[in-house]
Amino acid sequence: MQSLPAIQYLTRQELDIQRWDAVIQKADNGLPYAYSIYLDHMCKHWSALVLGDYEAVMPLTWNSKYGIAYLYQPPFTAQLGVFGKHLTPSLIEAFLSAIPKRFRLIEIELNQANAHANVGPQKNTSISLRNNYVLDLRAPYESLQSAYRENIRRNIKKAQQLNNRYATDIPISEVLSLSKSQMQGISNLSDRDYENFESLFNQLHQQGKAIACGVFDVNDQLLASCAYVFSNNRACYILVGNHPNGRTSGASHFLIDRFIHQHAGEELTLDFEGSDIRNLAFFYSSFGASLEIYPSLRINRFRLLGILKRWL
């Protein structure tokens, strides 16, 4: 049996970023969150595991508190994990085993191509499976629309009867404002997290890799909005901002439908970024989206886990 090339740990400063981004671009499972521009904006710190001559890579998004280093999932970053071509379960397991021992607590999301990873009988280690929904947009719009559930079609019709207006390329600040209002008291996102994402979005938008869309009522009030980030033939539905006035007008249904209409027939997958929440899962699947599983990794190398988590 041929042995694997060595997996080495490299700091952010030691990485060849051009080669890093090239790996993500060519990977079978490339995602926007793994590119250096995304990690630089959204992570407190990050380093990486690199296989051989940049044959496969794994970002390690980390922080430390009271001298204890840990891996965490950065804001607005649905999945990370191991990226490359022709990944095998044994290779993914080798990457997970190579995570330096200095990281005492690990709570990260891997990606769908890592779903068959097995960490073995390691103590205080677990992998659970999470749900995502994706929709292949290569078919004509009429074919995609025929897969909608009746409640989706009914809400789209309601939005049209109310003369709701769909718009692309709206200011990201409007989406962020609605999102912050909607998520207040629900999420742990900080103002700094939103500021970092706004800066990231603006740079990606300049490169043609991000867009914000919205649905307005007849009085030009923004009822439903979202931001998409594009890479590797995927459009990630990454940030959502809905106004309470849009709940009964079909605005959010119309918002997604118009994006599907706009990009139908393209070599593109709409990635809904979840969800394990039953109502959201039903909503996304109602557009004809398919279930895609990805793993969530938890490793505790610190005996006093309860105390540690209160600190972090």
TrEMBL record:
Residues 147-272 form the BioF2-like acetyltransferase domain. Coiled coil: none annotated. SUPFAM superfamilies: Acyl-CoA N-acyltransferases (Nat). InterPro entries: Acyl_CoA_acyltransferase (IPR016181), BioF2-like_GNAT_dom (IPR038740). It holds the Pfam family Acetyltransf_6. This is BioF2-like acetyltransferase domain-containing protein. It comes from Pseudobacter ginsenosidimutans. The lineage of its organism: Bacteria, Pseudomonadati, Bacteroidota, Chitinophagia, Chitinophagales.
